[in-house]
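Reviewer 2 asked us to include a model.

Predict the structure of this chain.
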Amino acid sequence: MSSGQIETIINKGADVSQNRSLKVLLAGPRGFCAGVDRAIRIVEEAIRCYGAPVYVRHEIVHNRTVVEALEAQGAIFVEELDEVPADGHVVFSAHGVPKTVPAEAERRKLLYVDATCPLVSKVHREAERHYAGGGPESRHILMIGHAGHPEVVGTMGQLPPGAMTLINDDKEARTVQPADPTRLAFITQTTLSVDDTAEIVDILRSRFPLIEGPKREDICYATTNRQAAVKAIASQCDLVIVIGSPNSSNSQRLREVAERSGASRALLVPKLEALDWSVLEGVNTVGMTAGASAPEALVQEILTEIAKRYTLVIEERIVKEENVTFRLPTPLG
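Predicted model (structure tokens):
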């Protein structure tokens, strides 16, 4: 957020001379990552190229504000392909899908565009490499992730049933009993807690010294950077507000990281209307960030409303600059 934008927000306040002062520490980076930005542009370009409606399997990203904005442009969100008519155009979400999904789309001759984040696709390719077609070089894969999350469902669906075992937490890492401990590999969901995942990886490496994995966990750059930014401000905050949807894994992890890193309290707020103003009573310093699927407009909207009630002193703390971009897939790129 530029200094001009911050000044505009402050000036939009009411008679701030009569309001109590409140310091706001803005974590940076925050909000949209390159994969989310790409996925949204894919839906918008698909609508432009093919005309409305364009069907999207699953929420393109986990944020209702984004979903509703795309619906207004002509997107129709569905859970499964059987909800898409025979002549429909369909986009697969940024979280990735099992191989059965594009196979079914091809069987039905549906024209589809895959908006899977390239960093998630990278994990898919790693899984295929370790599996090696199920031949003599194949390794059983331990996937670190959360059961039921669309990214986990999509990644585990890249290989035949039984080729992967899901590890949800450190307890499962300590108790998993693979058939051949000498032929193992691990991969991870991209939106996990950096610290929790490092602990699980350490347990697996200790139990299975021959396990193979990436040089670093597959947690994406955006998740890592946003968690680092929250860590940098949390201990100075009476309250940290994380803007993001409850079903957003990376947003939930930001809230957890804030609490673990010294914030007196951390809350997940999906949008302005969900903010309980009583939480700011007695707060002198509030931290603010946004999950990788939350638009910056939500940050500015909430700050603008806070500025009507308090005299704001806004300080942005940026721990890392981001300049990652991903190309659109053909036929849209």
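The chain has a mean pLDDT of 94. Residues 72 and 332 are 21 Å apart (CA to CA). We have added this to the supplementary material.
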